[in-house]
Amino acid sequence: MWILEWLPNWMFYAIFFAGILGVIATYVLGFIPFLSAYKIPIQVISIIAIVVGTYMAGAISNEESWLAKVKDVEAKVAEVQVQSAKENIKIVEKVVKKIEVVRVQGNEVIKYVDREVVKYDTKFAPGGICEIPKEFFIAHNDAAKERRDVK
């Protein structure tokens, strides 16, 4: 509520207690002849002050409970962000390891292909058709395998 931001909390409690004093004062004012004429307006204003004070005291209590909940949630969010950062570091490390494993395995396949293809580079069959060695199929299949050993 906007009024809670402008007025201090004690102001609403003072309004409440002023209303109670006003109701009590109307019984005393009934015995004073020249003030008894103002008895009913004072009672009405006092009752309105009690209602406003009670309503605003409830609003203050509600505001404080929501602020406490917000602080709890902010603390939990900060905790989760720290955990998230730790998990992100773990994930990045895993990705870097996987990339390195793939790079190393790819280099091994390239070295193997370079070493084995040189042997068959000069062998051509008649008619321009070349012989495909079985090592080519092995290297191809090894390169295309799903790497289950990478975690």
Task: Walk me through this protein's architecture.
By secondary structure, the protein is an all-alpha fold. The protein has one domain (2-144). The chain contains 4 helices and no strands. The chain has helices at residues 2-6, 9-29, 39-120, 134-144. The longest helix has 82 residues, at 39-120.
Question: Would you spell out the secondary-structure blueprint of this structure?
Answer:
Layout: H1 2-6, H2 9-29, H3 39-120, H4 134-144
Short description:
It contains four helices and no strands. With 151 residues, the chain is mostly helical.
Average predicted local confidence, pLDDT: 81
Task: Name the beta content range.
Answer: under 5%
Q: Tally the helices: what do you get?
A: 4
Shape: rod-shaped
Query: Percentage of helical residues?
Result: over 70%
Poorly predicted runs of 5 or more residues: none
What is the terminal-to-terminal distance? 55 Å
- Rg over CA atoms, rounded to whole Å, is 43 Å
Q: Characterize the largest beta sheet: strand count, sense, and whether it forms a barrel.
A: none
Q: What's the number of extended β-strand segments?
A: 0
How are helices and strands ordered from N to C? HHHH
* Structural class designation: mainly alpha
Integer count of domains? 1
